[in-house]
Every structure is written in C-alpha cells, then in structure tokens.
Amino acid sequence: MSQAPARYRSPDEDSGRWSGFLFRQGDIVISTRSKSGTTWVQMICALLVFQTPLLPAPLAELSPWLDWLVTSREDVFARLAAQRHRRFIKTHTPLDGVPLESRATYIVVARHPLDMAVSLFHHGENLDREQLRRLTGQSEPTDGPPPRLSLHDWLMSWIDREENPREQLDSLPGVMWHFSDAWRRQSEPNVVLIHYDDLFEDLEGEMRRLATLLGIRIPNQTWPLLVEAARFETMKARANRLAPDQSGVLKSRQAFFRSGTRGEGRNLLSDAELDRYRQRTLQLAPSELLAWLHRDRL
C-alpha cells in the first residue's frame, strides 16, 4: 500500500484538498515553489494542449490552483470534472503532498533560490492582503505589519532564517525541501524536472522536450506561433488573460510579470554573503542537486 500524502497547510492553501480528486489518464500536475516559473509552465502546457496562442479561457480557469482556499474545493473539482481537454493543474505542494498516480505526469519547476526570493519579495508588495484575508476568512492581524526591510536586508534574513520546511514552504529550507523531494524522484517515468534557466536560454528546445515527454505532437508550422506566445514579453502584454488573479488579489496584473530575468539575487550580495548562502544550502540539499540548481555559478 502506498504511503498517504503529507499534508501542507498555510493561511491560504491546504494540500488536503487533493483527497478524493479523480485523476484521468494524461493529467498533468505542475508542482512549483512560488515565483519559480509556475505561470510560465502553465502557459506552455496550455499551448501544447490547445496548439494555438488563442486560448479558449483565461489561463487560471484552464489550469486551476487546486490547493488554494480562495475558491471552494467543490467549485475547483466541478470545473476540472467539466473539462474535456487534457487537464493541467497547478499546485505549490511538494510531490510528497499530492497523490502520485501512474496515469498523471508531474512537472516540477525549479529556479535559482536567490532569484526566486527576489521575485517573492516584489510579489508580496503586489498582493492585496486585505482582499486575500477576506476571501480566505482570516482575521485581521492584531500586532500590525512587520517592519519594512530593504530588499537586500530581507534577502539576507531569508537566507539565515531557521524555519520548519513543512510549515514555511517559501522559506529557504522549504524551497530546498520541495526541490530535494523532486530530485529523489527524477528517475520515475512520470516525473519531469524543468529548470527556469533552461526555459530562459532555450525556450523552444524545452517546449519541444516537454511535448515529447507528454506524448504531444505539434505540426512543424505551428511551433513558431507557440514559442512566441510563451515568451515573457508576449505573456506580459497579455497579463489580463494570463495573470492568476480571478479573485482580485493582485494590485496590478502587469506587475505580476515583473522582469523574468536571472541573476538579480546574486547581484545584490557580496562575495562573502554569497559564500554564506552557499554554506547554508549545503546544509539543506544534496550537492548534486545544488550543482544543477545553481549551475555552478556561485
């Protein structure tokens, strides 16, 4: 008997909502950490499934976030049950927290943690937290907002904080927990690891690789249209249709697609601070994963 999935909870997520979900042959589960290329890979899957840049609905409707408490579990399940296309589902839960089905393919997207953290900082500034609290039934905070740190100081505190990775998934220990779990499963035939940098450097090559792994055939004349639609600048221009903001929790949909670049986190830190980061990650993940994740740029 397979082991029951671990349960991950936060004020606005609950991986327990996967319980009872009815998988279909060919389902795709996109498992990422926040700000690691989630929407990018959702868009790539949409383009491969529909084989046209003209998607039939907003991306968040086509690829719902199953764990998110903003939308009721019943509504998400009903929406997915009604879909007749090949389904691709978003989650920020590590693979040990979702049911693992041989009928499904699990795509885990990884990004350099320092770049991910910089994007997470800016994403936090773009969230309407009052709206998010209303939608998830959270009470108003009683102790006021924490002191505002500069990006550099926040990043250093993020590197140094000791957190329970199962409780704080967007902490550095949580990020390494998510990636390490996927790294251990990479030999499984239905687990696919994608590096954000590979999408950045060879978008068409990675899209073609993913299409092959998913068993999707695309006519040669269609590829240029699909690749162009998946470029960051094109997606940003279509932010109103592609940003995950059906419930109005973003202050700006355009700001959600902020820069899509690499190296911001590393450029903020001195050599000594980068070494501090390296030593910290060596305590949290296997060296082979770190070499792949960092591309040995540190």
Gist?
With 298 residues, the protein is an alpha/beta fold.
Q: Roughly how much helix do the residues carry, as a percent range? A: 40-55%
Largest sheet strand order: 4-3-5-6
Mean pLDDT: 92
* The CATH H-level homologous superfamily: P-loop containing nucleotide triphosphate hydrolases
Largest sheet: 4 strands, parallel
Span of the ends, CA to CA: 42 Å
Walk me through what this model shows.
The chain has a single domain (about 10-295), classed as P-loop containing nucleotide triphosphate hydrolases (Rossmann fold), CATH 3.40.50.300. About 45% of the residues lie in helices and about 10% in strands. It has 16 helices and six strands. It has helices spanning about 40-50, 60, 75-80, 115-125, 130-135, 150-160, 170-185, 195-200, 205-215, 225-230, 230-235, 240, 255, 265-270, 270-280, 285-295, and strands at about 10, 15, 30, 90, 105-110, 190-195. A hairpin with a 2-residue loop joins strand 1 and strand 2. It is globular, with a radius of gyration of 19 Å.
